[in-house]
Amino acid sequence: MFATMTDDTNETANATKTTPSSSHSTSTRRWTTSTEERKSQSTTKSTKTESKATKTSTSSTKKPEPTHPAGITCDLKKVGDESSEFKPRDYVKAAFEAGVYQYCRGDYGWLVRPDDRGSGSNYFWFDTKHTDKETGNLPAYCLGSAKGVLAQWSPKSQSLCSGGSGVFGSNSKIWLEVVPSDNQKGCKDLKEYKLPAGDDCVKNWNRILNECMKSGDPPHGNSGSWRESTDSGCFDWNIWGRKLT
Length: 245
Description:
The protein is of the alpha+beta class and 245 residues long. It has four helices and ten strands; from the N terminus they run αββαβββαββαβββ.
């Protein structure tokens, strides 16, 4: 009997010793689980933060709007051209260059009068499929508005255009005008302005074309404007692609 009691006592003692160890193991597992949860939450927060940082970085690297020299405006939203629904049309750069050539080298003797918006404007039809050696291989000039003498608006070069005709042989139409700026603040008194001709005239239009025409094959664009301050006041040089018919 004594020996049996001793065995029971030992078993009880061993059970007593085991219990704290089992409790410690459970506590350890709980601590480990809690730590893993905290790590998981921390990782989730970190992932969200990185995601936000990525979005912010992507937003900050958004392509900036192009900047142009003072006085130059490209891609005009609206133009003073009711026939084109006030919207400029896109044509190849060569068509605009041909328009500049006719405006500046067509012997019009431009004199812009403040009370006559049409005194410094004209438009021309061109065929970009055919070129004219007389203008340095610019698109063939098919027809002009009825300004000046017959030879200016019904040129010999129209025979180079598709079908050998004017409007119907063309595929582009360019409007050019020089008009008093709406805002004359900081400008000299407004009066008649005799426009430069030849190379000086071409240079002024090229300020716009060199900034506003888009790269491509071929280069192209729809419109642009340059504000000039002169001794005769401030004037806008406007050029745009016009609705063909």
